[in-house]
Amino acid sequence: MSAVLAAVPPAVLVPYETYICEACGYVYDEAVGDADGGLAPGTRFADIPDNWACPLCGVTKADFTAYAAPSLAVLRARAPASAAVASARGGPEGVVIVGAGRAGWQTAEALRALDAELPITLVTTCAGDVYDKPLLSIAMARSLNPGSLVKESGQNAAARLGVRLLAQTQAVRICSDTRTLRTTRGNLRYDRLVLAHGARAAVPASLPPELCWRVNHLAAYQKLRAALGDVSQVGPRDVLIVGAGLIGSELANDLALGGHRITLLDTQPQPLARWQIEQAGAQLLEAWKALAIRFVGGVQVSSLEKVGPRYRVTTADGQRFVADQVIAAAGLATPSRLAQSAALAWDQGIAVDAATLRTSDERIHALGDCITVNGQASRYIEPIARQARAIAAVICGTASTPYEPRAATVRVKTTSHPMTLH
Amino acid sequence: MNPNDLPPELSREATAEHFLAAIREASRGPLAAVVESIDRTGYYPRAELQQLGALGAMSAHLDAPAGRGDFGLAIRAMAEASQVCGATGFMMWCQAVLGLYMQASGNPALSGEALMALARGEALGGTAMSNPMKSYAQIETLLLKAKPVDGGFLVNGTLPWVSNLGPDHACGALAGVVDAEGKVVREVMFLLRCNAPGVELPECPSFSAMEGTGTYALRLKDHFIGAGEIMADPAKPFIGRIRSAFVMLQCGMALGVTQGAIDSIWAVEDQLGHVNQYLDDRPAALQAELDALTARVMKLAETPFNPSVEFFIDVLDARAHGAELSLRAAQSALLHQGARGYLMSSAVQRRVRESHFVAIVTPAIKHLRSEIARLSAEVLPA
User: Fold this and answer.
1) Do the domain assignments include residue A415?
2) Residue A235 near residue A375 (C-beta atoms within 8 A)
3) Which residue has the higher pLDDT, B7 or A15?
4) Which of A172, A178, A213 is facing B381, going by the closest CB pair?
């Protein structure tokens, strides 16, 4: 027995291993060796001299690491389904929609209702999941788990509507001369383009974006909730909210009902200052007396810093506040990148014709939070479905009721004191 | 006509046209004569590059007295040469960014006579920044390490595939500065002279279209760099300042390779137009797209040091568009030319391989898109 063992080269008893060059990806296989580099088959990595060089790129042994290539099955399973890529050339042109919020999905629904065959592609930076954004303001009052806010996954909605969904994809530029939308997953030709990318939360210059939350979409809200933790386990947190408009006031109300201690700052003397005539702020402050909400009006935030695990906010008049989390709720601003790239008319947002929601480019429509009609944005839920139907009718060439802007009725979802304002 | 008699704007334009005409002549004459040996036998066109250098073709973007302070002109010069030879266009970019580093360094040892020699094409060199750029985009880790010593650093490590090098060349390089435990604490950028002690240039295997580009690995063993070599320490803010200019200059290759491809489509239109009319990507459509892209790049070139993220995204996207367009144009040229474009000696055949290079050289199309995605993401607390 021992004689047989001795006849077998001892190296074979340990399986051969592979090592990868970190610079160029060349894989050294101990079983194969490197004939040109003077390494016989079976040469163990440990036995390679230090001056040996990668046969492809010339780096030395020190830049190699142990590596086992996964099987093809593993690689296939790993490729995320969301990472679909565009294949502009040869594909159908149809309609391309940018944005998978309510405006984007409503447009897809309205188009599909009118035309079963129309190719529709939806491009979105998020996962494309369908949810009701207003719930982000009342999730705690309703004891909704942030994970349960998704009504339908983006993939399912896309399958139901026969829409090609490019999720986690950034729309970068519109080339209106070739009717192409450039994205980070390839380029899309369009016959009609619909911009439904919404607005982004504005971040005041005094607040570093990496230190403060903005709650304008589900993913950011879920991250904020995760950072706050479960009150029943970790206890209440001090949350400072900058801006006591609609969103700031609703969040303050909801997070307070969820057990957190809120400090709400605003430049105006009362919250909801836009509706001062209706005394909205005064009513709210009265209702909040029972809650852990401290409103500090008439202050301008001058700085936000991280101090240990907490944050310190300083105002221009020298007041200091310390909080576990800081939220900026200082209004919305429409990103101008896409509109500018197509030289679309711009008036505080993408300027559209009220009746048809057409931009200054006849093949490009826009709706929702990113548009303005006569310089007025109307960032509410109610108009979106009507806008989507008007766009779908124009694109599909069917008769429709043109979109008509109406004075918005605002339902303030401060659950401790709901209000309807005009 | 004497350009001095014209109003300043017209005079500058007339001088620019005169300048480009000289580059065109050098490209279509001496460079065209050696393009096949560059491609097929790996001839390194030192004399041809130096002639282009003497004309100011690789220094037009530099501030006076080294250059004309015009990035648009530098890109157009690179496009002129790339139309004839993509490999030479690439070497011009290598040389142009080395000049950019040296001038931006503000180090008198680098921005004085050394820079002038480079600007005139007397000295040649390149850039070893592919790995650092990918490191900043969080794609790779740094391969060179610098250990602080008295008066400077000792640099160790090996970089793969650095172009426009030779025994008497130099390049801009970057190393991670390590502390006593070997942890990278910051980065230092420096001029690396290929003939300095501790520097070796191992040969690389054959490349598809870049055989004549003087491409080597760079192996450093206890290579000393001191005050005379330092370009930036720390290097990160420096890279932030020049990143748009660095990427923008590469557009010259894409514009030139694409124009060369369109030209070879027109070259067979008379004989083959009756069948070529059935192909995708016809020359007029390609030319319109190229002209629009050129206009866009020229606009970006007016403000090469705009520090904003949005501007950098625009530059990255223009560069990606250039790579995509050159791929399509080169492929289309091959389909338009048919069998004659399939001859190994055909410029069309070579240009297909050159367009592949434009698409894969750092930053490759995939890097550009990934970086745009990274830079576009909303910044939130960790």
Assistant:
1) no
2) no
3) A15
4) A213
